[in-house]
């Protein structure tokens, strides 16, 4: 009996001890980086060995919840976890320990924990509490609420998402203060705001409620100064979710922050991709035409067999229907249409923003299938000069020098210099014609930037650019110095001079960060002198463009608007054979755009009216709508109208190296006797994110339809000896479907898969036909892998891209003799490109690559190649590569 009573007393005693300890346990949550189940086990076991009573780690939220008693320090536990290889919010693992982890445990080290030496200054203290917010308006609201609740002082830090409060405990408490902060709309670690209160916050203040406390807010600048989402009321026309072209930005006047990678902007109503310079390094990317080799959206047509030109296609239509801008200013249009892609060197590019479907009306009326905007290098916290040397194995060489440097806190400048030359005779199919032109290009630019937006509200950007490009092609041995009439060999000569000067200036109104005024101006002079055998073509173009944009809000930042006026002058002076064609296009215009932002949706509705002296008054409405079913499921809808005037000679030069005569069937229009081109574009896309192998995976499916109300038809089918232009009588449409899947199966290995379907048809004079040189089916595969960086910042990169192209309808050549007839459809084929690069450290990089490694090429790229002055000669029937496999090497050095 005594033994029984003793056991009861002992049990009660032990139970009491457990209760006492349980009452002294405290539960805390911390950010800890990990990747897989092995990480989870390692983190939890380490925490328990370091003194935690319980430890639960979540891979999805990257958080560790621990229970400790008075004998265990959370700091010591987190220190031990870091020593085991896992970065956390207070301690960072050593590089050696991290590298020793199994490959599956190599998490992304984008959480920047404080080191052991300095964590005392940054660890969360007793008077610090997690409070969610985005911007300066949030900061003012949070701090005011804290003081209203009795705090003596309050300071909210957006980067850390923490409010620091000081108060007299006899007058108030942290609970009362945090409750008051929640009442004004800001979730915190103790109280959650009511849904209605949260929804009534201005749109700029609508933070992501699903991000765990302690995790960085992607809408706020990181400690390194790299914004990862819209950070400010004045961010506009930026692209790239998490890695976008983020800038302190007045509409059209940008002062950029640093960027990284390629991504789809989740916040924009339109379908906008940002392609960063890091993506461009995955391929040769010598100029803009080669900048889309690892991008599935844009199709690059292969070089013409005689002129060496490349053209872009988007949504199944030629590049002339895509607005191609530089620094948001009109760039590749008019006489520059044929060769302008060669005038923006790849090493000059800081980022490319690609918009599918109708773009904003503030950028003009010419966009029908979308917009491709190129931003030049102009950002550096410290002086940086880079040298790039490039050469392929067939006589092409390039050199680029870029120098970006701050002059002082407000001024910075950029020097850009590019030179290239093609010196070798490349004739891989032994037909006696060069597969690409020989010649040289000298290209120089200077940019000057002023940024005082934070103080005076003023920012400005100035640029000047000069280009001299000279090319010779045709039969091997042709002497450009002699006139064509004096030699039997067929030759092509193309000499281009181009000069541009531009300025963008903006002002942010004092005390009104949502209100700004921007003014853009640009002058362009472009001259081309060329001949194609006995056919001569020359032209001059002078363009002046001006755009004034005012932006503000209606009531609050949920309702934004832009309004402004633009002016475009194009002066053309062209000579074809013996005919001289001159015209001046004068286009004043006005526009307005309204943006409505809700909790789950964004609506952008705009319209512009342009008073074209030759095309008449044109009304251009555009609409973009985005709805977030969840943060991972996004629907977008778009519709819009665009118009343009066709430059039939400049845009069709790939057909000049042929026996085709040009015929224009005029109908009373004022541009070459033709009416302007007008089209409607409609689109829908669905973006879905999900986890695969514990990593982010994204699928995007989109469908776009373009319906032409009027179009200038380029008819190659009426006769193999004719190139006929006339206005559309009937229907012309392009259906485009694309699905793309991006995922990371394991660390440092990126996969991009895409499939595209095009249905492009038009009513020609003799009936409806598929538009030639457009494959219905296309497949795309891209693999990119890089090794971990070593202590010097060195690593290897491997990239390969496969493009599968289905059969294409070819122009009708049935009236030619049998030996000069083309089949109705081309063959299907695939092209493989690959590159290996080695970063020896942060300053030196070497690369080796190959293009068209499958060596598929069009064997008879030129019709009747032996008789270039005969009736059947045609160098424009190109549907595939005309060169076999080509290899290149390059070197990048940063000083």
From TrEMBL:
<dbReference type="InterPro" id="IPR036163">
    <property type="entry name" value="HMA_dom_sf"/>
</dbReference>
<keyword id="KW-0812">Transmembrane</keyword>
<dbReference type="InterPro" id="IPR000531">
    <property type="entry name" value="Beta-barrel_TonB"/>
</dbReference>
<dbReference type="InterPro" id="IPR037066">
    <property type="entry name" value="Plug_dom_sf"/>
</dbReference>
<dbReference type="InterPro" id="IPR039426">
    <property type="entry name" value="TonB-dep_rcpt-like"/>
</dbReference>
<keyword id="KW-0798">TonB box</keyword>
<keyword id="KW-1134">Transmembrane beta strand</keyword>
<protein>
    <submittedName>
        <fullName>TonB-dependent receptor</fullName>
    </submittedName>
</protein>
<keyword id="KW-0675">Receptor</keyword>
<keyword id="KW-0732">Signal</keyword>
<keyword id="KW-0472">Membrane</keyword>
<feature type="domain" description="HMA">
    <location>
        <begin position="124"/>
        <end position="189"/>
    </location>
</feature>
<dbReference type="InterPro" id="IPR006121">
    <property type="entry name" value="HMA_dom"/>
</dbReference>
<feature type="region of interest" description="Disordered">
    <location>
        <begin position="216"/>
        <end position="249"/>
    </location>
</feature>
<keyword id="KW-0998">Cell outer membrane</keyword>
<dbReference type="InterPro" id="IPR036942">
    <property type="entry name" value="Beta-barrel_TonB_sf"/>
</dbReference>
<dbReference type="Pfam" id="PF00593">
    <property type="entry name" value="TonB_dep_Rec_b-barrel"/>
</dbReference>
<keyword id="KW-0813">Transport</keyword>
